[in-house]
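job 3f2a | input accepted
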Amino acid sequence: MAKKKKKTSPKKKATKTKKKIIKRKVARKAGRKVTKKAVKKPISKKAAKKKPVSLKKKEKVFGVVTHYFPKVRAAVIKMKAPLSVGDTVKIKGHTTNLTQNITSMQIDRVPITSAKKGQEIGLLVDSRVRQHDIVCKA
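job 3f2a | predicted structure (138 res):
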């Protein structure tokens, strides 16, 4: 005669679920909500830093776009190197790839012919550019 394995009785399963229900009722009466907390995964240092747009090593970065005015089609650029009217620049971003000749630059609505490092200039552009786009020599 082979011994049969005992199956867990349905009474034990029922008592476990009853205990859960009772705990929830008690928690609700006390004014607390019973919810499962979502566990947040820690962000690695590599994932936290955004990678800039890839550039060729020989391209020199002149500045970064900080703002764009769509009605006048002008970009505000924070300069990292000197730049003058007549230079050809390339503006690169995730969705931007624009090469153009500089025709107009301004600082506080005053036209200028050259800009120095550290200045914020207004530059007339041919198409839309976005914040954090990189301005480099073409």
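job 3f2a | The chain has two helices and ten strands.
job 3f2a | closed
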